[in-house]
Design brief:
mainly alpha; 3 helices
Length: about 100
């Protein structure tokens, strides 16, 4: 499954609205802050809002896909220990791969 459409000509989804998160991940706020920073950069770099939103979507699509994969891994955990390992892996990934904004 590829990244869903995150923008239209005048609207961009960010945070919980954009990311397919497990309710157990609880990182929608953090991702929303990242999204807002990337969106700000896109809007600053591109005068045409529609092009800026398309640029934002392209910039975030790989991260959205990875978040969805981590979220699904947490949900498929077999037991509490497995859940903890997968959640820790997601948290580590979030901390070490945050985009520069």
């Amino acid at each position: 499954m590829g990244t869903p459409l995150l923008t239209s000509a005048r609207v961009a989804l960010i945070g919980d609205a954009a990311h397919g998160l497990s309710p157990h991940i609880a990182s929608g706020g953090t991702l929303g802050i990242e999204d807002a920073g990337v969106l700000r950069g896109s809007l600053t770099a591109e005068a045409d809002p529609e092009k800026a939103l398309t640029s934002y979507e392209h910039a975030r699509s790989a991260r959205f896909d990875a978040v969805r994969e981590h979220s699904a891994a947490v949900e498929r955990a077999d037991d509490a220990a497995h859940f903890a390992r997968r959640h820790a892996a997601f948290s580590h990934w979030m901390l070490t791969t945050a985009p520069a904004t």
